[in-house]
Amino acid sequence: MSSKTRSAPPRAMAMLESLRGLGYSAGAALADIIDNSISAGATEVRLDFAWEGTQSRITILDDGHGMSDAELESAMRLGDKNPLDARSAQDLGRFGMGLKTASFSQCRRLTVATVKDGAMSCLRWDLDELAADPDGGWLLFEGPAKGSMPFISSLRGRKAGTLVLWETMDRIVTNGYVSEDFHDLIDAVESHLAMVFHRLLQGSKPKLRLLINGRAVAPWDPFMSGHPAKPWSSPVAHHATAYGTVAVQAHVLPHRDKLTGKEFEDNAGPSGWTAQQGFYVYRNERLLVAGGWLGLGNSRAWNREEAHRLARIRLDIPNTADADWKIDVRKSTARPPVSLRPWLTSLAENTRDRARRVFAYRGTPAPAKGNVPIEQAWRVDRVKAGMRYRIDEAHPSVAAVLESAGTLAPLIRSMLRVIEETVPVQRIWLDTAEHKETPRTGFEGEPSAAVIEVASVLFDDLIERKGLSIDEARRSMLRTEPFQKYQALIAKLGDKK
């Protein structure tokens, strides 16, 4: 006996308006459109942002192989492809929804024009026209809207390619939105795309060229590949699974002291150093997840912490892994399968530990030449109640004062003790957490003259009181914190010229 059934198709307007709330940012939505271009074999994608108030628009033009009329209709239909179907190894899609959901999240009118073998087709979704006839069903309109023909004219004369046009961008151009906001949007989109597609954009022969309003997008490499100050990168590790091979490589980035101001700013990433730490999950060299610890941890999931901000881990998964890794429609979240969590946790623990040691560089500076330890001004005493920070009286600057103090030595030691007991540890941590930056120390940002002024006093003491030669005094200075970082300046001490 067969069960009775009923056909219950979704109402077009209700469904389309619901799909607008999937939570895309403009950058993520445009990245989804570019994914389709890449899957279509494009090597160049041009994005053009045109500000005209509420009539503003964005076009995305690629040089891919284009679509026939039937293929375009399929691409414009919601849910036309089953996400469980096998895909090309290079296909960046999965759900067959990205073009529509990404576009509807930003605009009410989506027009797609395409050329294949010299034949052009054009279809559009127009939510305002559908709203005017709520019982009209799932209606695709042929051709651009009235007055929009000039916006797809860049396809003319091409034998292949596709153009996506966003109009009526009510989720972008809201009340009070002005041209400056639009320009800020362009900058934010550029930063996002530079990160998401950096592996396709980089190299002497990049696989993809992206242009925004005619300007090429430069790749942003989260791992600072090839930087001479980078302290550590692991070998690439592979793990075979039923859905293919997962590859992982861990990286620890240089301490701020090893970077110029511009390098530090450029490599912070769109969200800043602390937010950008963690795993970077890629599929076909396209970034899906930028930072975070994927819910991994021991007793509880790790958070993004200042001490681990230099840790970044590249993780590559095949496009057959979407279901196991729980990749969402927006391609913005991922969760590793249970079978891989112990392996990834162990790798991340090692990386976090290394990153923390590099981050604490000022507390444990690298040895000088010849592996000679650096004389540090502060030492850490570990007691039952925790840790205490003490001024090291053996530091040459401190020792020089105490040895020359005579009857003032007890008073000076009392002063040092007051300094030790009033180090604003909690305030330092609070300021670091709130501003996402470590306090400046070690003459950072000070002019050379200021460093020389302080160093000269210690240098003269080494020569006059301790009887060292100029070369011996210089070598001693280079073994003393923080002067070990100023080799060129120390080399000038004692130079009569």
Explain this structure:
The structure is a single chain. The termini are far apart. An eight-stranded mixed beta sheet has the order 5-4-3-6-2-1-7-8. 32% of the residues lie in helices and 18% in strands. α2 (26-39) crosses α6 and α14 packs across α15. The protein folds into three domains: 12-216, Histidine kinase-like ATPase, C-terminal domain (Heat Shock Protein 90, 2-Layer Sandwich); 232-359, no CATH class; 369-490, no CATH class. By secondary structure, it is of the alpha+beta class. A hairpin with a 2-residue loop joins β7 (209-212) and β8. The protein has 16 helices and 16 strands. The chain is elongated and about 100 Å long. It has helices at residues 12-19, 26-39, 69-76, 98-104, 127-132, 179-196, 198-201, 261-266, 322-325, 341-359, 396-405, 409-421, 425-435, 448-464, 470-477, 487-490, and strands at 44-50, 57-62, 109-116, 119-126, 141-142, 160-167, 209-212, 215-216, 232-233, 237-241, 244-252, 278-283, 286-290, 311-317, 378-383, 386-391.
Q: Report mean pLDDT, rounded to a whole number.
A: 88
Strand order of the largest sheet: 5-4-3-6-2-1-7-8
Indicate the percent of residues in helices.
25-40%
CATH class of the largest domain: Alpha Beta
Overall 3D form = elongated
CATH fold type of the largest domain = Heat Shock Protein 90
| DSSP strand count | 16
User: How big is the Rg?
Assistant: 30 Å
- The CATH homologous superfamily name of the largest domain equals Histidine kinase-like ATPase, C-terminal domain
Indicate how many domains the architecture comprises: 3
Q: Spans with pLDDT under 50 lasting ≥5 residues?
A: 91-95
Secondary-structure-derived class: alpha+beta
Tell me the strand percentage band: 15-25%
**N-to-C span:** 106 Å
Question: Count of helical segments?
Answer: 16
Q: Biggest sheet: strands, sense, closure?
A: 8 strands, mixed
CATH architecture of the largest domain: 2-Layer Sandwich
